[in-house]
Amino acid sequence: MTLIRFPLVFCAALALTACRPDASMVSANFQFSNAAGLGTQNAGLYEPGSTFLWNTATNRLEFLDTLALTPTTPGGVSAGDVSSTNVAEMGISGLPESLFGKEGLIKASIGAKSQFVAKGALREDYNNTITALANYVQEQVTAGNNPDLILHPREDEFRIVVVRSVIRANESSLFVGGTDSSDPNKVVDVSLNIPGGEAIALRVRVGTRTACGRSEGSDGKSPACFFNVQVLDPEYEEGNPRMQFLVGSAYPANNLPGAFRSLR
Q: Which residues belong to the signal peptide in this entry (predicted)?
């Protein structure tokens, strides 16, 4: 097995200059990454019903409105302490030249060594998404707006994204390589296995804040730390003058975390 030796160091944020100048470090953006069993990390603290227009051609999102959805179980369902050890679709930057072209593999390897933990979790699910969108269209018409210009139902690349479930948490943390990495200045050592027999050691800087939870002393509702969405295709069907919202229409799901990161 060939070992590519990058210096293994653990640097505090204020001591980066003390690291060897040839040390290789990448930055990983876990905001809006996907955590299996939890959902999408909610860096924007979006609430249920938050609705976006998604241009899948440019991978850009535009916030539209927050729709009034119907809770499946009023008050939500307590889930206790839950975790996800399979994190995907984080952003990566600063790859060394020797790893160009292996971004997907690096992301998958870092994700496999990452974990989100949500303590005191409460799951809220909602329905009536299509009814809420139909009401939104009618409200636009009543207000004198043209919903065709807002939702682009005659253009194939546009989709509607609706937050339809959330996981609230008293506290949510991110661990990378077993180290609490909720602080965006944290730098951790991660060993990666590359097909072909190579082993690579990198320093990974978690350059974005992902900590989420109830403020100390707060007695209000915990924030939505993770969410799941429904993606719908706005269209006009032949012979039907009312805009339809089709479920199950093809869309590039893996691109959605990046679209959310570009929104902020």
A: 1-23
